[in-house]
Amino acid sequence: MAKIIPPSELIINPDGSVFHLHLTPSQLTDRIILVGDPARVDMVASFFDTIDYDVQSREFHTIGGTYRGKPIMCLSHGIGPDNIDIVINELDALANIDFNTREVRDNLRRLTMVRIGTSGALQPELKLGTPVIAEKSIGFDGVLNYYAGRNEVADLEFEHAFCEAVGWNPLWAKPYVVNADEELVNQIGGDDMVRGNTISAVGFYGPQGRELRLPLANPQLNRLIEEFRFNGRKVTNYEMESAPLQGLGKLMGHRAMTVCSIIANRMNSDANPNYKTAVRDLIATVLERI
Ligand SMILES: O=P(O)(O)O[C@H]1O[C@H](CO)[C@@H](O)[C@H]1O
Ligand SMILES: O=c1cc[nH]c(=O)[nH]1
Q: Where in this chain does the record put each Nucleoside phosphorylase domain (predicted)?
């Protein structure tokens, strides 16, 4: 007998929309731009030819419409990997669960999701404003560790080498390493973007090695991360969502990737608070290619 997903596990609002995102299945498009900042959704939608809907619920702001005649939507996930668990599960539910019968559909829909974010560089040569693709994403958040199949989508050798090299603290969640969708990276990535390896941190300050008033558990961590090399790869940057996006995307069969504009360089102690022009240029480029 087909599994029926109970109301406690998939909460559907009285208007037929999914619990947090407040979107209905008919509002979902196959191509999705994800951004952290709810106001960035308006910036993305300013490039659309037409706008069909504009929905706001908590930090989740979505505008759906068309770009160059094809359906597209842009959704904000807010800050943090825990929000990505909500966003990807609810987008997948809109795509692949029948909201009337509460059964998983026989024919699964494959979504294309590109996150356009901001990020802090961990290598001195990465200039402010550079777009960096997370070819591999290293999740410090632990979200993927709660799902069966985690090891099948993870780069276990990279994980092991990384934990050894930086002396991983057992009090922190075990890192997982997941590739972006390779075909999507080739479609979106050009010579104007750096192909990097991005950490999804579980916070902005201590978890990214920022010391304001509170001393850090391991003040050497960022230097060890900067020096780490594995099969010719180095860790390039910090942000907070790419790993659960790429990990859950892979487990569910969707295409997902992240590209971030560098707004701070942690190695040079440099930052650009006026980063929005660079982000706008990156949005225009991604929309051309998605
Ligand atoms: O600019 P966004 O997309 O929010 O991305 C980055 O900025 C936020 C922290 O300032 C985190 O969400 C991080 O991932
Ligand atoms: O340093 C940074 C900049 C933007 N977003 C982050 O998560 N870290």
A: 31-273
| pTM exceeds 0.95 | yes
Q: How far is the CA of 17 from the centre of ligand 2 (A)?
A: 32
Interatomic CA distance for residues 189 and 82, integer angstroms: 27
Tell which atom from ligand 1 comes closest to the C-alpha of 118.
Answer: 1
Instruction: Look at residue 169 in the predicted model and tell me its pLDDT.
Output: 97
Choose one of 79, 141, 258 to mutate for the ligand 1 pocket test, by most ligand atoms within 8 angstroms of C-beta.
Answer: 79
Both 164 and 273 in one domain: the answer is yes
Shared domain check, 240 and 123: yes
Closest residue by Cα to atom 5, ligand 2, is 119
Provide the number of structural domains found in the chain: 2
Reported as a single tens digit per residue, the pLDDT across 71-116 is 999 999 999 999 999 999 999 999 999 999 999 999 999 999 999 9
Same domain, 251 and 143: yes
- For residue 38, the 8-state DSSP code is H
Do 145 and 208 lie in one domain? The reply is: yes
Range of the domain at 54: 1-109
Ligand with smallest separation from the Cα of 279: 1
Last residue of a domain, one of 51, 84, 109: 109
User: What number is the ipTM of this complex?
Assistant: 0.99
Query: Which amino acid, one-letter code, is at 197?
Result: N
Residues facing 230 on adjacent strands: 233
How many angstroms is it from 120 CA to the middle of ligand 1? 9
Phi, psi torsion values for 227, nearest 5 degrees? -80, -15
Atom of ligand 2 nearest to the CA of 263: 3
Is residue 136 helix, strand or coil?
Answer: strand
Q: Does residue 59 sit in the same domain as residue 135?
A: no
Same domain assignment for residues 142 and 93: no
Name every residue whose Cβ is closer than 8 Å to that of residue 15 and which is 6 or more positions away in sequence: 24
